[in-house]
Amino acid sequence: MLLDAHTLAEIESYATNLAWQAGELLNDYFDHPLRVTYKGKNAGDDPVTEADREVEAYLVREIQKTYPTHNVVGEEETKTDSHDGPLTWVIDPLDGTTNFLNGLPLYACSIALLFEGTPVIGAVFLPWPNHHKGRVLHARAGGGAWENDQPLSVSDAVSPTAGRITVLSGLHGKKLKPTGPLARQMGEKRSVGSIAYELALVSTGRYQYAFFGSPRIWDIAAGIVLVQEAGGMLLTYDTKWSELERVTSRTGDQFPDPQSLRAWTQPTLAGNPNMVRHVSSNLTRRWPSTVRSLLKFS
pTM here? Predict the structure, then answer.
């Protein structure tokens, strides 16, 4: 099955409207008492609220009604039928639950469509000052990234600038360290607690670049399309950096099944092409001291 430009435009419009509806539901829940459970191993880790569950249930229900042959993968694992096909929706109903739970309006709802593992449509709802209903940023492959009729564009800086915001989240956990020019100037580091929110801000140029140590596919799927269509690039790191264009299957199938998508996580860097090349070339592996000693005398 091929997605022509007309079909992509139609589905982008649908995803954008869906993001607005999800945002309206989140607005209704925001800053009200919520029922909460926790998925993390430690007390207070990885909260899930009724807003997460209800918004995901709404999104799954609407997508399955409109596109009954498409797969749907959501962070909260709402039960869905599995289909042997190339099209999969990847949704995060509320990225930034801890912020949301504490009345901090820094969160996002992320909706993406993947074709054979390649993100081709993205829509992200953001709460925003002076925007009563919030904002929705949206994009489709080959169609640019937009907010309403305004095109989005990533920052054009070729290297980090002092005083401009960057995200460097999870470097220590991934044993990467800044070196060379990056160690001397990384920009003004921030982390707001929502990857989808931060990737959206990369697509608008407000953030110079962003590095995430362990994102999940629902955190970044929509943001991939936004950043790429806003003129940016994303790299992932395994033993070396490579461009992120498609999520592959663990089983070697033509396209990833929902289980492969759920299991996906890789360090990810986003920004304009010159910026991500500069940052990635100055992020090196942090070897344990015993290994450094062996390398020194080998």
Answer: 0.91
